Amino acid sequence: MNNNNNLFSLSAKDIITQKTDPKSVIASLTERINKVEDKVKAFVRKPKINPAAKPSPKTNQPLWSIAVSIKDNICVEGQLTTCASKILSGFHPPYDAEVITRLKNAGAILWGKTNMDEFAFGSSCENSCYGPTSNPHNLDCVPGGSSGGSAAAVAADETIMSIGSDTGGSIRQPASFCGVVGLKPTYGRVSRYGLIAFASSLDQIGPLTKNVYDSALLLNTIAGYDHKDSTSADIKVPDFTKSLGEDIKNITIGLPEEYFTKGINREVKIAVDTAIELLKKKGAKFIPVKLPHTQYAVAVYYIIATAEASSNLARFDGVQYGYRKDTGQGLIPMYRATRGEGFGEEAKRRIILGTYVLSSGYYDAYYLRAQKVRTLIKKDFDDAFKTIDCILTPTSPTPAFKKGEKLKTPLAMYLSDIYTISANLAGIPAISIPCGFTKNNLPIGLQLIAKPFAEDTLFKIASAYEAETNWCKIKPKL
Amino acid sequence: MSYETVIGLEVHTQLNTKSKIFCGCSTEFGASANTQVCPVCLGLPGVLPVLNHKTLKHAVKTALALNCSIESFIKFDRKNYFYPDLPKNFQISQYDRPLSYKGHLTIKDKDKTKKIGITRVHLEEDAGKLIHEGDDAASSYVDFNRTGIPLLEIVSEPDMRSPGQAYLYLTTLKAILKYLDVSDCDMEKGSLRCDANISIRKKGDTKLGTKTELKNMNSFKGVKAALEFEVKRQIKLKEKGEKIMQQTLLWDEKKQKTVSMRTKEEAHDYRYFPEPDLVPFVLKQEEIDTIKNNLPELPEARLSRFMSEFKLSVYDGNILISDKYLADFFEECAKTYKQYKNLSNWIQGALSSELNNRKIQVKDLKLAPLELTKLLKIADEGKINNLTAKTVLTDMIHTGKSADTIIKEKNLAQISDSSALEEITDNVIKDNPKPVGDYKNGKENAIMFLMGQVMKQSKGKANPKMVIEILKERIKNA
């Protein structure tokens, strides 16, 4: 029984290889949540499963009885889904997102909804109507965002795996801040059906996990063409776990000079340099590459993302579902009061920004120009991948920052995603893996970026690195 | 002073596909409110549109029939505005690259033909329907059954010079759409709607005057009446030296007048931008060619053919081709009956009035063309007279029985047996000495009275030709 006390810290791979009793794992997770959740606040509600529910008899399902928590912007039939926004209070979707259907078919246990920045607007998980989530490694710090709840839940061992979404770094940056593995797949790899859209051309669902194997395993389940999503790619999905453990002797990795300039925290730089050395020892070749339009990425992102968001969020108007403030004065006052009270500050800021850039007279100067530069950014990567297999960068220029530190300076908050945004603009896959800790015990993340649909390359290099390090095993003291 | 009227029309027509444009819901008219809806057409959070390619085929077919150039790069845009009948608060439409452009249709105004330019034809989704309670609309309800029904927007050039031409444009367009079998074109059901732009200018001026937009007309006659009203209103303003304001006006059918809805200053900024949830694609030339090669014969061509092949007048031809099914019926009959003028008279006369009485369409008629021609042949052979033939036709439509059967069952065969006719004729001559005398004194018309008496006594069955001959002979010999 003594052993049972630590079952919560197991990875999916551990549970599968050790054939751990699923009920004991769930019991252990429940105990763990009761102990640490009040400090971390990773979930919007504590996960509960029906005690009468029996594990599925199909024990050969790939995620049989594995607890997977879900970011609160992904629809689960009959379960409150709010994007951490007051405006969606009371919204119970009548349908499952495609990823949820796939998780259910794979035998996974849906293990609660995780906290996030409202509508995924933010990099700190502080913009939530449920209050902020804490970084399990230092409760005074943010877990990153917007999938901060998912990253924190994995890091704090409150779940086995988690599903997040990444529009400009929302999986990778919190993974880096919390010391877990976070993957943003290629745009189109995972169906977005049922993901409440932030920016449709950038959003992508992906796994947050305790190790690289679990990431590959979870991607196996959620990836693949879905006719309900016109942007999903009809491309064969390999077994990603097969690419793990392969040697990386023939791999060439590019180091974009634009990413290693001023603004990187010294400890982050040292950790990344050390990782590069380790990969060199394993046989990988490193060459410098140029991504000349990198400097425009943040500006382009905030134009395109807010433009799409302003339109995507128009439907939250108090008419059909969610929060409604009826002033008794008719339609327009109802719209105003509902949206005025229902949305948080950052959501309003982005809606206004997006409305502005799409307005007649400004469209060409902002949105159209941003789309053109986006094409150039994508071309930068296409050119670079002619000579390299992968790009290596820090995931974030800094480790986790203090809560409240950037709330009053949105621009500083936006720059926290400076290394992750380009992959979304280019639609290419990128992974963040732990590569060290600061002297204050805050995790540091390393980002690998590959060409479209080359997630296997990411897994190969990430697993080679992981095999030589111990970062994933270092747990927060809670 | 003499003025010229300039009119352009914007027609919205629902396509008659079985399912909606971006989801699988039924498009059937008349179902209970909100029974033909799903998360996609309700615009629930997280759902995505998927194009129903059938709607695109219908749209291309229509555009080709209207002589438009086809834009093979298919892309959709979002038109953003808030209204409770629009669940996403944006409409998926086409903006800068409409499906087709620069076409025309030809109207026949008396003997003259005139080409009316088509600016563009594009595909979009319909909105829901608001139902207001009480006169002051204290409560409003939304029926989303109509939301997502495929809609074609057909915009004309300002090429029409009178309300009458606008009316002809609409009837011609409707006939084309019916021939293509792409829309029901029922204005009362809202499957065809029309807005009009109208301005006036001094005869000879080349610059367009300030236009007003007319909405809310629910019949072609309503469009004509609204335009006629607006011409007078604008001329009156001009004559008084007042300015015509650019504005949107609503047609009040009851009061037969227009009322102001909004002025230019209140016009929307729709913030169009490319729909990120639908990937643009290229329509293959072969696909366009296939549609082109399978276009049915259109009304204009059919009219010419009817005139040359069946030697019909423009007038007769126009009436027949105006309804595709009526023309089909005529052609089917013409295969077995060569007295085309007589056939045309019967179809336009007896058959059409029977349809009117029953308030049914010719396509719903349970009368085989062959049965009608059999009836006509029986009449031509003199077995029954025309009057009897009409009552037989009514019976045929009512009972579905053949002409032969009805004539036999009701004993309607014409009396062509001369001895039987002679007996009746002799009685009539004996009982009506005065008309007989009149006839003898040169009053030719008197014979018609005598003939009427014979018909009456024979219960309409007497062969009129024979009766006349016998009457003349008997009177002469008497």
Write up what this structure looks like.
The complex is a heterodimer of chains A (478) and B (478). Chain A has helices at residues 12-18, 22-40, 98-105, 148-155, 172-178, 212-222, 266-281, 297-312, 331-342, 345-358, 364-384, 410-415, 421-426, 455-468; strands spanning 67-71, 109-114, 161-166, 181-184, 204-209, 252-256, 285-289, 390-394, 430-437, 443-450. With 478 residues, chain A is an alpha/beta fold. Chain A has one domain (2-292, 378-473): Amidase signature (AS) domain (Amidase signature (AS) enzymes). Chain A has a ten-stranded mixed β-sheet with strand order 2-1-3-5-4-9-10-8-6-7, with helices on both faces. With 478 residues, chain B is α+β, with helices and mostly antiparallel strands. Chain B folds into three domains: 3-287, no CATH class; 297-409, no CATH class; 418-477, Arc Repressor Mutant, subunit A (Orthogonal Bundle), CATH 1.10.10. Chain B is built from 15 helices and 16 strands. Chain B has a nine-stranded mixed β-sheet with strand order 2-6-7-10-1-11-12-13-14. A three-stranded antiparallel β-sheet of chain B has the order 5-4-15, with no helix packed on it. The model of chain B has no long low-confidence stretch (mean pLDDT 91). Classes of the chains: A alpha/beta (478), B alpha+beta (478). At the A-B interface, helix 8 of A face loops of B.
